[in-house]
Design brief:
With about 725 residues, the chain is α+β, with helices and mostly antiparallel strands. Helices cover about 35% and strands about 20% of the residues. It folds into 3 domains: about 180 residues, no CATH class; about 375 residues, Alkaline Phosphatase, subunit A, CATH 3.40.720; about 140 residues, Jelly Rolls (Sandwich). The chain has a 7-stranded mixed beta sheet, sandwiched between helices. Strands 15-16-17-18-19 form a 5-stranded antiparallel beta sheet, covered by helices on one side. Strands 20, 21, 23, 27 and 29 form a 5-stranded antiparallel beta sheet that branches.
Length: about 725
């Protein structure tokens, strides 16, 4: 009788597992166009590890591991296709958000063949396990354990000896990147526990945190414009603007936005324009509030700003509103996603509208809201209404048509290689017609028009495309402005620049330089995109650090460049120094992580569905992603009032951490009527750090409710956790 514990011929079950964890990833990488030696090494290292760990495990134990691994592959492919980056922990809330997933995919994945391929591999493995269930499986030779160790070692050595500028998804499979990042965290934690991690000297933050108005003004006195129109295009990188490509000698030669480029030839362009982070709400915060958003994952500063009653008044809309402007915000999607329904009023917009404002129909089906042609036609009417008033005005527009799933008419889809390119071309035509309409109406004669993007969806093979933004300025005094604005700028400069244009005071809390001044010296700049932390010292040295705090240095006169001269590995201290600099900037709003005060309540009526469909899409208080420090206590107060006497509202409150339910002893379903409002208050301790924490306020029963108060206060246990101070501020947050 054969002994299953000794090596022998490989059975069908092992062969099916080899096909699943080794062959399918290699084939998928090739089909996705992610071919890179480091990437194939990473796939083989992870695949061989899974093979050795799961080869003789029970199917019910191996299956969840394989499902998780396959899910990471699909999530990676979809997010890279959508926004040009790998998923992070901060994306978990969106991956579990039914509205985000449904709208972003449009009902279909960008790479629908990948889950089919993975599913076929999993099914083949399960069938082989079932058919050979009575046959013992011979173990693999012990010597094979050297295979994953060797592959991981070769990959690690390659990253250190011959570092590549290829995108992270080309060099790592997501599970390998998560494993490497976790290992690095353990190493740093152990060094801290042993006291061997003496911190290097901290980098100064003055160049990044203070407004710099020492440059020479490009024209005397305030600008001639009476109004401000800020047009934000979803996900558009600076490489799509021809003058920017030419100025930086970019090898990217696809002319996807000829209309925008034609208008750029008439205005002032800033080729070296930096986007600091991913995600719309983070980009809007940086450009409208003159501050870097989180240069890592965590609670967006726009949400943290809801805890502030002073810093929000320094944002551009609030400053212009104080100067007598009527301030308006209009976007093509609903407002509740990413909490823009609360954040935008809080930073000073007097009128905030989303998809519900538009009365004109769409030209094509688009799950996020208005397609770009319909959006800009409505926006042109909005501008016309503003021009009938006597007040100067500020209008901020945000398009959504170039968000995944990139809808476009059939005529565009037939002309271009991908739906994303077709959607970009459709946006370009819609924007061109809009700008022509503004010119016909005489808007350009008395209005400063700034066209930019919230983030960059990246361009495959283009260096730093995920950080490359653009800023096109059309001003009444165009003859006094250069066509190409020299120097490095970014979203952090926009608020300071626009206040400087109108010769308004610059609040002390703002950062940045003015685009309407010329400077003789370089300046520091920082960005966190694609999992890479990038820092330019303003003196010709560009440093790029990966998720393991390994840094490379380049000689580069500016931040964005098509090429840069590699100077070698940066000193070991560079990683902790630049990470420490980013962490300091991350705390610009909250000088201490304690005594956090959030108000998610609003006087706006909220219509209830007849039943709860999903914990995420039906959340009555929008998206949150909170952090609660170790050793603190959190107090919550909730007030809900039913507005329709004919309906009883049924309310549920849940708490989740990393998308998993957290047991806080909350009551079950609660009934609310017009005569009997809900007033609930409770505390809970945070014995360890809570991250990716979210509240889910759900309701059903028809009619409408008003969440007049949802106060969340976190402080040390011996501090006053009273919520009375927040009760009066609910209206402030939503007005």
């Amino acid at each position: 009788m054969s002994n299953p514990s000794v090596p022998g011929r490989i059975g069908v079950r092992t062969c099916s597992l080899i096909a699943l964890v080794l062959l399918i990833p290699l084939l998928s990488r090739a089909l996705l166009g992610w071919s890179n030696p480091a990437g194939y090494l990473s796939d083989l290292a992870i695949g061989s590890t899974l093979l050795l760990l799961l080869q003789r495990r029970a199917w019910w134990l191996a299956l969840p591991v394989l499902l998780f691994w396959a899910g990471l592959w699909v999530a990676s492919a979809e997010l890279v296709s959508a926004v040009g980056r790998l998923p992070t922990s901060a994306d978990l809330s969106y991956l579990f958000d039914a509205q985000f997933v449904e709208n972003s995919t449009g009902g279909a994945l960008a790479h629908g063949w990948l889950p089919v391929l993975m599913g076929a591999g999993l099914l083949g493995w399960l069938l082989s396990r079932w058919r050979a269930r009575s046959q013992p499986e011979r173990r693999l030779p012990r010597a094979l354990w050297a295979m994953p160790l060797t592959l991981f070692g070769v990959h690690w050595a390659g990253q250190h000896v011959l570092p590549s500028e290829a995108e992270p998804w080309r060099q790592y499979t997501l599970s390998h990147q998560l494993l490497a990042a976790g290992t690095g965290e353990v190493q740093r934690g152990l060094a801290h526990w042993l006291g061997t991690d003496a911190p290097p000297p901290a980098l100064a933050t003055v160049g990044l945190t203070q407004a710099d108005l020492n440059g020479q003004r490009l024209f005397e006195g305030p600008g001639k414009a009476r109004n401000l129109l800020l047009i934000t295009l979803e996900g558009i990188p600076g490489a799509y603007v021809r003058p920017n490509r030419e100025a930086l000698h970019s090898r990217f030669d696809q002319d996807l936005m000829p209309n925008l480029s034609r208008w750029a030839a008439r205005g002032m362009n800033t080729p070296d324009y930096v986007l600091h982070t991913h995600q719309t709400i983070r980009g809007l915060y940086a450009m409208l509030c003159g501050d870097y958003d989180k240069l890592a994952n965590g609670t967006p500063k726009g949400v943290e700003l809801l805890t502030q009653q002073t810093r929000n008044n320094d944002c551009l809309p609030a400053q212009l509103r104080q100067a007598g402007f009527a301030t308006h915000y209009l976007q093509g999607a609903g407002l509740r996603f990413m909490a823009k329904d609360r954040i935008m009023p809080h930073i000073g917009f007097g009128a905030v509208h989303g998809e519900e404002w538009f009365s004109n129909g769409n030209y094509l089906e688009f799950p996020w809201g208005k397609d770009d042609r319909a959006f800009f036609e409505g926006a042109l009417d909005y501008v016309g209404q503003l021009r009938q008033g006597k007040q100067p005005w500020m209008l901020t527009l945000l398009t959504v048509g170039t968000h995944q799933p990139y809808s476009a008419p059939d005529a565009y889809l037939q002309r271009y290689d991908s739906p994303r390119q077709a959607a970009v071309a459709y946006l370009d035509d819609a924007l061109g017609r809009f700008l022509e309409g503004l010119e016909r109406q005489g808007v350009l004669k008395d209005t400063l028009v700034v066209i930019t993007s919230d983030e960059s969806h990246g361009i495959d093979g283009v260096r730093l495309a995920s950080s490359w933004g653009f800023n096109l300025t059309l001003a009444p005094e165009q003859a006094q402005l250069p066509q190409l604005k020299p120097g490095t700028y970014g979203h952090v400069d926009l608020t300071t620049s626009l206040l400087d244009y109108f010769a308004l005071p610059i609040p002390a809390s703002l950062s940045g330089r003015s685009l309407f001044r010329s400077y003789d010296s370089g300046r520091e700049m920082i960005s966190f995109t694609n999992g890479m932390l990038r820092y330019h010292d303003g003196q010709g040295t560009f440093t790029e650090c990966d998720f393991q705090q390994r840094c490379r240095r380049y000689a580069s006169p500016g931040f964005i460049a098509d090429r840069a001269t590699y100077l070698g590995q940066a000193p070991a201290a560079s990683g902790p120094q630049i990470t420490g600099l980013a962490e300091t900037l991350d705390q610009s709003l909250l000088n201490t992580p304690l005594n956090l005060r959030y108000q998610f309540g609003s006087p706006a009526p909220i219509a209830l569905q007849q039943q709860i469909r999903d914990d995420w899409v039906d959340n009555l208080i929008g998206a949150q992603y909170l952090e609660m420090p170790e050793g603190t206590r959190t107090r919550v107060r909730l007030k809900v009032r039913a507005l329709d006497p004919a309906h009883t509202a049924y309310i549920q409150l849940k708490a989740k951490e990393f998308e998993q339910d957290v047991a806080l002893g909350l009551p079950g379903e609660m009934q609310v009527t017009a005569d009997q409002p809900l007033d609930l208050q409770f505390d809970f301790d945070n014995p360890t750090l809570r991250k990716a924490f979210s509240f889910h306020l759900l309701g059903y029963g028809g009619g409408a409710v008003e969440v007049t108060d949802f106060s969340v206060i976190t402080a040390l246990p011996d501090e006053d956790l009273g919520v009375e101070a927040l009760e009066d501020s609910a209206v402030v947050h939503a007005s």
